[in-house]
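Researcher: We plan to redesign the surface later, but first we want a full-length starting point. Tokens attached.
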């Protein structure tokens, strides 16, 4: 098998075995509508903290199960309700600060964009740099959180694709795959799932080992 063929086998195996977006893992049915886009924003903030991804996913599910699925519902919830939901998901180390940030962030989105992140996209003209600048104004969403959000939504905001953040590039390097977004070995409609798989390979060496063994690389 040629080196390129070997890389394609690794990429396909990664997609098949670990190519689930973190949004899907959190129960978000992503589409270009306000509610799921906001849910991905919440998830991105949770994932960007120094905490296990599995805990962040569980906390996102707990928030959504508590009915906090829109900026309006998040802003109207009490601080204690947000803390309790985060705790239910095991997100206890940062629960109080995060509960405050979620409330402030929801209010900002309501006041600035009517709670609709598509308006942010429109104002940015679909430009990733401009979007990052707007996202950075959301409390609790630092550079890593912005990257996670853009990485996750590239399937519906296709002008962003292919989008690989630094963590995905680390995973590509671990698997011996190109880290250049212009040299990906998957279709554009697969880039969000592929990037998530790369992140898992970066976070967990056993994922990379599993892919390399299963692909025969």
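Model: Full-length starting sequence:
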């Amino acid at each position: 098998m040629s080196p390129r063929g070997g890389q394609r086998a690794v990429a396909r195996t990664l997609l098949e075995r670990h190519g689930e977006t973190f949004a899907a893992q959190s129960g978000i049915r992503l589409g270009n509508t306000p509610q799921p886009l906001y849910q991905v924003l919440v998830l991105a903030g949770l994932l960007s903290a120094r905490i296990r991804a599995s805990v962040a996913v569980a906390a996102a599910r707990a928030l959504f199960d508590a009915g906090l699925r829109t900026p309006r519902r998040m802003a109207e919830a009490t601080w204690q309700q947000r803390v309790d939901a985060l705790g239910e998901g095991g997100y206890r180390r940062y629960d109080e600060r995060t509960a405050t940030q979620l409330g402030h962030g929801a209010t900002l989105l309501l006041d600035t964009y009517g709670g609709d992140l598509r308006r942010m996209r429109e104002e940015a003209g679909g430009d990733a740099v401009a979007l990052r600048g707007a996202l950075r104004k959301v409390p609790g969403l630092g550079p890593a959180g912005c990257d996670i959000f853009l990485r996750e939504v590239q399937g519906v905001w296709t002008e962003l694709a292919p989008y690989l953040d630094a963590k995905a590039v680390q995973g590509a390097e671990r698997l011996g795959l190109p880290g250049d977004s212009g040299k990906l070995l998957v279709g554009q409609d697969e880039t969000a799932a592929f990037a998530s798989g790369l992140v898992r390979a970066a976070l967990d060496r056993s994922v990379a080992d599993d892919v390399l063994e299963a692909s025969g690389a």
